[in-house]
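Quick one: structure tokens for this chain, please?
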Amino acid sequence: MEKHIDRDKSQKLYVQLYEILRKKIEDGDWAVGTQIPTEEELCKTYEVSKATVRLAILELVRQGYLTRQQGKGTFVCKRIIP
């Protein structure tokens, strides 16, 4: 069952989406090396704007959960915790 974005929460939409996607990675729903859905697919699934999806993905990249490969997609990577 997909979690949904709660627009009534005071928490920003991209933060909610970040947490949903991070949980998918941490729970093993998306294994290391897996290509995640496209920005367009995530927009449709979670009914959010492309800007919201991009912010959530950028934070996951910054935190070391994802890596982006131009022309190929965004992939789950092995996270190295300092």
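The helical segments are 13-26, 39-46, 50-62.
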